[in-house]
Amino acid sequence: MASADRLFAEARRQMVLTQLLPNKVIDERLIAAMSATPREQFVPKSYRGVAYMDEDITVASGRALMEPLVLARLLQEADVAPSDVALVVGCGTGYDLAVLARLASTAIGLESDAALAAEATKLLAQLGLDNAPVIEGALADGLAKQGPYNVILLAGAVPEIPAQLKQQLAEGGRLVAVRRPKGAPIGQAVVVKRAGNLFAERVIFDAGTLPLPGFDRPAGFVF
């Protein structure tokens, strides 16, 4: 193993030991998935040295990877099974999708930015994750044709969770996201579970996750 590879492997180990385990992340499959996914490959070269810090990392204008602990706690709450079909809304360069692809049978990435979608497709192919296709489209619309989904992850904060995304959950499906109203200093991570036509929502923890684009309400008419 090259020197840089050893350094990044140690950084992943420290991420687990100092960020995940002390903060109630105990799912062994999830820890293994995050330990096996090279986060440094999904950020710009200038940020690779800080890829495992407990902060969001900018990957493009207005886009960022969620900090590892927020992602881990969201996915742990989603309780992903090996047979699940999952959707990542706003997959960016593909890190969250790569982790989820190691947990689910199929993980589909939805990305509105063509350049990010192309980068994610390239990186996932390099890792040999052939169960994680990336589709370009409007984030707030979801991907109804490929659904329903057992798990939906919103890879960034949104002011509210669109009803059309909830409707794409399968029976018993779980949607995990950070809800952060525009201008709010901090958001709340939530899990939404479907039972028939009912959607039960529970707040999990506070999070300062940066927003996803395309979820603002249209401006109302002014009389």
Strand content: 25-35%
The count of strands amounts to: 9
Radius of gyration: 17 Å
Query: What is the CA-CA span between the terminal residues?
Result: 66 Å
Would you kindly provide a brief summary of this structure?
The chain is an alpha/beta fold.
SSE blueprint:
Blueprint: H1 3-20, H2 28-36, E1 57-60, E2 63-65, H3 68-78, E3 85-89, H4 95-101, E4 106-111, H5 114-126, E5 134-136, E6 149-158, H6 163-166, E7 169-179, E8 187-195, E9 198-207
Parallel strand pairs: 3-4, 3-6, 4-5, 6-7
Antiparallel strand pairs: 1-2, 7-8, 8-9
Give a description of the structure.
By secondary structure, the protein is of the alpha/beta class. The chain has one domain: Vaccinia Virus protein VP39 (Rossmann fold). 28% of the residues lie in helices and 27% in strands. The protein has six helices and nine strands, in the order ααββαβαβαββαβββ. A seven-stranded mixed beta sheet has the order 5-4-3-6-7-8-9, with helices on one face. The chain has a two-stranded antiparallel ribbon with strand order 1-2. A hairpin with a 2-residue loop joins β8 and β9 (198-207). α1 (3-20) packs antiparallel against α2. The longest helix has 18 residues, at 3-20. It is globular, with a radius of gyration of 17 Å. The N and C termini lie far apart (66 Å). Mean pLDDT is 94; it is low at 218-223.
